Amino acid sequence: MRWILRIKMKSTATKLADFKDSIFGVIAKLAREHNAVNLGQGFPDFDGPAFMKELVTQKMNEGHNQYAPFPGTPNLRTEVSNYYKKFYGLDYDFETQVTISVGATEALYLVITAVTNPGDEIVVLEPFYDSYVASIRMSGGVPVPVTMHAPDFHIDKAELEKAITPRTKMIILNNPHNPSGKVWSREELQMVADLAEKHDLYILSDEVYEFLLFDGAKHIPMATLEGMKDRTITVSSAGKTFGLTGWKIGWICANPEISRVCRLAHQYITFSVSTPMQEAVAEGLKRLPEYLPGFVSLYKGKRDLFYNEMKKLGFDYTIPKGTYFMMVPISKKTTLSDVDYAMKLIKERKVATVPPSAFYLKSSEGSKYLRFCFAKKDETLRQAIANLSPEA
Ligand SMILES: Cc1ncc(COP(=O)(O)O)c(C=O)c1O
């Protein structure tokens, strides 16, 4: 139902005038309306680990229920700092270089707003997580897309360098990559790092899927490349790693000056992030070494199940090495665009996916794919496959 304005009011902000409902909301609504199996939005349809829920209850009972210090609880910042050291050999001082946020999404906004002046150009590698472009625009910046070319989602060095101008401030990349499931190689990261050094740019490295890796793939944080730690701002989140996306605990690891400015923005946007959740995540991070093998094998089982069944249905593509997404080519199945095919599948096959053209500004490559999320119960994945099979 359309809302009818009955009184005369001043207009709302023009900077938001072109914003639309995100594709996830649109698909989720359609999926509900058509009773479709939802493989669209990127979160598990099953619960997170029991030990994390016990930890948060314990933390509440211990009295961790008032405002946390605005940069984050010292325990969580210490544990974030500890795991970067333990897993990657990176030193971040928890007092000055680690900031806790409401999920990675707030972290991304804080970083973008902290570095962007009106008119500054920020290079985004498409397909991208859609909040990057929204945050750049809200900060008065100009998103400059560079395409990661399918089917292997590689970057062309000449195209990237051509996109860099004297107004460029930062390059945003996502590794492991949503929606393709690509895990960046050292050579690929080095190419971007070299250009960032040459043109004196920041790199915002969104690494929320850092632990969701399969078949021996290795995550290389951009900040570990020689000379890159100070110009790289790393964002990650507990949501994906613990399968608890509703907890919304994220973090930024950055040099002290970037961290200081992010904290200034955070102080007035959010002020303070949920205390018991932070304390539980701090404990959870200590347990990563024991927790991660089971976590990875759970998602690997889902990836293999879904991929093998999709192959049997005639979808032909390379199995992704990271994240819980697959970009599935559709051109052998239909002449429709991704958006029209996604709508058709929701209505006629009762399966919801995300049309990835929403993640591109420039290229039309996304219109030949659909993004499937396999972070779902096996029965959900099997139902989706049954609905997609020709005899359904
Ligand atoms: C690439 C990427 N970055 C950031 C986020 C947001 O993470 P959070 O839920 O911690 O805000 C997501 C969530 O889907 C994502 O896919």
Describe the secondary-structure layout.
Elements: H1 23-33, E1 37-38, H2 50-61, H3 74-88, E2 98-102, H4 103-115, E3 121-126, H5 131-138, E4 142-147, H6 157-163, E5 168-174, H7 186-198, E6 202-206, E7 232-237, H8 238-241, E8 249-253, H9 256-269, H10 275-286, H11 288-312, E9 325-329, H12 338-349, E10 351-352, E11 369-373, H13 378-388
Parallel strand pairs: 1-10, 3-4, 3-5, 5-6, 6-7
Antiparallel strand pairs: 2-8, 7-8, 9-11
Pyridoxal-5'-phosphate binds at residues 42, 103-105, 129, 174, 178, 206, 208, 237, 239, 245, 250.
Q: Could you walk me through the main structural features you see in this protein, from its secondary elements to its overall organization?
A:
The protein is an alpha/beta fold and 392 residues long. Helices cover 40% and strands 14% of the residues. The strands form three sheets. It has a seven-stranded mixed beta sheet, with helices on both faces. The protein has a two-stranded parallel sheet with strand order 1-10. α3 (74-88) runs parallel beside α10. The longest helix has 25 residues, at 288-312. The mean pLDDT is 96. The structure holds pyridoxal-5'-phosphate (PLP). Pyridoxal-5'-phosphate binds next to α4. Pyridoxal-5'-phosphate (PLP) binds at residues 42, 103-105, 129, 174, 178, 206, 208, 237, 239, 245, 250.
Short description:
The protein is an alpha/beta fold and 392 residues long. The protein is 40% helix and 14% strand.
